[in-house]
Design brief:
Blueprint (H helix, E strand, L loop, with lengths): L1 H10 L5 E3 L3 H9 L8 E3 L2 H7 L5 E4 L5 H10 L8 E4 L5 H13 L3 E8 L1 H7 L2 E6 L4 H11 L18 H30 L4 H11 L7 H11 L21 H12 L4 H14 L1 H8 L14 H34 L5 H7 L10 H11 L10 H24 L4 H13 L6 H12 L3 E3 L2 E6 L18
Parallel strand pairs: 1-2, 3-4, 4-5
Antiparallel strand pairs: 5-6, 7-8
The chain binds 6-phosphogluconic acid.
């Protein structure tokens, strides 16, 4: 990925020096991919820093965690005040906040930048989400915006996110949404295969059609290709892959942060748990021989209509997932004092990254129309879209449930929607239960802010416990 980003920056006319601690890799790169370019190589960190013009801009693309700290420690002695270190890995945002503070104390600038799009993106235009020392932005703006992907209208999928760890936070939420999108598509595949019994070519064709409409996106595109892909024996390769999903942690961090802030980001949380459940492969195989699902029931409806229902369910759940993702960003901005621009964030994700889609253009429009939009679901375009999709969405979740096909993300997002649109939810009973067994007190609906305790049994005391919220 580092090599591709270097080649991309060189194509845009910037002078780049490549360094890798395995110096033979630098020589190999210069003799092959970088041959005939202006790219220079360095065999030591000292040489790298000598070859760069001040203020130096050094971008690290190393594994998140200790390797980033180790690299920074090696770089610092060779840098001068005003130089800039950029971490382009998937670092956890609290680490980025800490590094920005530590380096500021040394007079150095620091940027934690989300970089999305994999190898391809790095070469031809990634989505870049930089945040950190505000003085760093003018130093890298031209390089980053020239290197980044562009939308159809020529806008760069890169802008300044904000201070501290905000760039890496936005990338983390991008990855959480990526987990959600992928799981929803996996559920759609399972519905098409297990309920409608479609062949892989038929499924591939459906994804192809979906890609020409509101679901137009990179993940739909690659799913189409994966479904159509045949192994050397002519059978679909996807069916030979063990159904146990891996994860590097960014989805989990997103869910943990949402829980920490008390933001109901249910679809991403469920997508992480779905990966966890998938990885219990041996346990599931054993349980499948004991635990029964619905028996003797098969789908008897109109196949074509149900395929359209699944498409609508995917679209509606996606609207809910992004609404939740932006709720999380809004809460994080409040908590960390970041001034996030949601329209620009949607634009940064519009091209280059893994969740790139036409749909993100609609989100940019919604936030450009109203930058204080409280929830994406309340934007007129999305309210209409979700109302239209709802009958289909409900049919899909109920069919899946009746036939025993797991759709964790589709169903959790539907429940969130029904909860969010309810003026009254049953939490009054929870409050009564808390007060009953623990004298935790409750508020009366007519008097919010006034805390009351009831002696529910006549045996409890009159004294309420002190109340607090986490
Ligand atoms: C990207 C991706 C990338 C991440 C993969 C793998 O934006 O280019 O998000 O950063 O490495 O998504 O993540 P998991 O291994 O956790 O699925």
């Amino acid at each position: 990925m580092g090599q591709n980003l270097i080649l991309n920056m060189n194509d845009k006319g910037f002078n780049v020096v490549a360094y890798n601690r395995t110096t033979s890799k630098v020589d190999d790169f210069l003799a092959n991919e970088a041959k005939g370019t202006k790219i220079q190589g360095a065999h030591s960190i000292q040489e790298l820093c000598q070859k760069l013009k001040a203020p130096r801009k050094v971008i690290l693309l190393v594994k998140a965690g200790q390797p980033v700290d180790d690299f920074i420690a090696q770089l610092v002695p060779h840098l001068e005040k005003g130089d800039l270190i950029i971490d382009g890995g998937n670092s956890h945002f609290p680490d980025t906040e800490r590094r920005a503070k530590e380096l500021a104390a040394k007079g150095l600038l620091f940027v934690g930048s989300g970089v999305s799009g994999g190898e391809e993106g790095a070469r031809h235009g990634p989505s870049l989400m930089p945040g950190g020392s505000p003085e760093a932005w003018p130093l890298i703006k031209d390089i980053f915006q020239a290197t980044a992907a562009k939308t159809k209208d020529g806008e760069a999928c890169c802008d300044w996110v904000g201070e501290g760890g905000s760039g890496h936070y936005v990338k983390m939420v991008h990855n959480g949404i990526e987990y959600g999108d992928m799981q929803v598509l996996a559920e759609a595949y399972s519905l098409l295969k297990d309920i409608l019994k479609l062949s892989h070519d038929e499924m591939g064709q459906i994804f192809e059609e979906w890609n020409n409409d509101v679901l137009d996106s990179f993940l739909i595109e690659i799913t189409r290709d994966i479904l159509k892909f045949k192994d050397t024996d002519g059978s679909p390769l996807v069916e030979k892959i063990r159904d146990a999903a891996g994860q590097k942690g960014t989805g989990k961090w997103t869910a943990i942060s949402a829980l920490d802030m008390g933001t109901p980001v249910t679809l991403i949380g469920e997508a992480v748990f779905a990966r966890c459940l998938s990885s219990l492969k041996d346990e599931r195989v054993a349980a499948s021989k004991i635990l029964k699902g619905p028996e003797g029931v098969t789908f008897s409806g109109d196949k074509k209509a149900f395929i359209e229902d699944i498409k609508q369910a995917v679209y509606a759940s996606k609207i809910i997932s992004y609404a939740q993702g932006f709720m999380q960003l809004r809460e994080a901005a409040r908590e960390h004092n970041w001034n996030l621009n949601y329209a620009e964030i949607a634009l940064m994700w519009r091209g280059g990254c893994i969740i790139r889609s036409a749909f993100l253009g609609d989100i940019t429009n919604a936030f450009r129309k109203n930058k204080d939009l409280k929830n994406l679901l309340l934007d007129e375009f999305f309210t209409k879209a979700i109302h239209k999709a709802m009958p289909s969405y409900r049919r899909v979740v109920s069919q899946a449930s009746l036939l025993g096909v797991p759709v964790p993300c589709l169903s959790t997002a539907l429940s969130f929607y029904d909860g969010y649109r309810s003026a009254k939810v049953p939490a009054n009973l929870l409050q009564a239960q808390r007060d009953y067994f623990g004298a935790h007190t409750y508020e009366l609906d007519t008097q919010p802010g006034t805390w009351v305790h009831t002696n529910w049994t006549g045996r409890g005391g009159r004294v309420a416990s002190s109340t607090y919220q986490v």
